[in-house]
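Researcher: Batch entry, complex prediction.
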Amino acid sequence: MLSVLIPTYNYSVVSLVKTLYSQLQDKDFSFEIICLDNGSKSKTDLLNEEINSIPFCNFNCLEKDVGRSKIRNLLAERSKYEWLLFLDSDVLPSSDRFIANYLEATYNNQVVYGGLKYDDNKPQKELKLRWVYGKKREEVLYEKRKLDPNKHFSSANFLINKKVFNRVRFDESLTEYGHEDTLLAIELVNRNNLIHQIDNAVYHLGLDENLVFIQKTRKAVENLYLLENKNKIKPENSKLLKSYSNIKKLKMKKILAILFNEYSYLMERNLISENPSLKVYDLYKLSYLCSISKKQ
Amino acid sequence: MLQLKDASIFQRENLILSNVNLDIKKGDFNYIIGKTGSGKSSLMKTLYGDLPLQNGEGIIVDFDLKKLKEKEIPFLRRKIGIVFQDFKLLNDRSVYENLFFVLKATGWKGKNQMEVKINDVLDKVDMKSKGFKMPYQLSGGEQQRIAIARALLNNPEMILADEPTGNLDPKTSIELMNVLEEINKTGITILMATHDYALILKFPHKTIKCEGNKVFEVV
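Model: Structure tokens for the complex:
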């Protein structure tokens, strides 16, 4: 009935698996939890080995990093059951009814998104940017998500029927960080598979440090630029691309590229501060996009 | 009750144990011992249908492991109670409600009948007075007793216990073993993986060892 699929990279998923198992063992259906390390060859692999002693749960390692899309496709290929629940390794269900809520949603739906949450307590300064971004942009209440269901999706916490997944799959041409879930959501909606929203969030616990998050952001912007050139993501699918196309119409691309090249350090100073501003963050992404497109 | 003939145990492509022959009769109490990575867990996993039996023959509680279909696994799980080292109850409900939900999930009807059953299994593990407790109010030993009570709910013919005393201190381990012994006396077959030799000496039973890809009986 249900395969829970968890890609990981140098991160212990033992407590996530145990939490899920405690909810699954109550149910009278077949299930499995499959965890796969993306070739981190780290000490965490040994910790994760413990998963193999839990009934219907298993952990394996890949020889090398195959990218965020391909590992998810591999997990789906290795799964036995008709429903796939994809979870990121650094999340934890926010309720003891997590599995039950998803099961109820399988009735009449093919793709279900449960949502993300962040801890209400502010973290230390080094993790502030990722937390503010998560809290203000990714943590969207169910009441708001259901008004525009196809706009809200993340690969960190979703359920999908295997037949539907096999028709779309994650785009393996993406090997760098970012937007694999945007592409999957676009593909789903293009094929008329609507995303059903439910109130079933996971806590996202693994906050990147400011500098790591800025690095990842830049990678994601580069990826977005490539995807736009290949026509895989259009301005209506991404707020950043929408602003970018407005900037192009206003013929301000060059100015923003200069802004990035001359003043990115000032923006970064804000982003790593105690009070990072998401307006600065948005400007940082937009001007970076202008600067890379100028170079090409 | 449980028979394996020339069975090979695989974890994905890797051969873990070969030529496994086991014959466990109704009412037996058996240990499986062996170092970490010797194949104990894989053997247990094959017995409850988590890993497929690829070579050889195997029958457990009237299920043919070779022909086991995925749809049948929940039914097999009802006839075998599984207890493992790090059992967790759902924290948002009492012990009683935890057990109640298991019965509901396995199709039990009638609140009175369910209540009788829950009291019965709690009594068997000496926890009758603790049904109203929340899981976080229980000690490790008490949680593990509830794990056993939970495994008893659907009248299993056999209990597979994978290191059930793994996280317990010696005194609590002995108390848990007394509970398992009592359950065994009611006719339920028990197969228990352990590496606690002191426990085996105190409660001697037939012992099967996994070592060097082989399974054999030791004295």
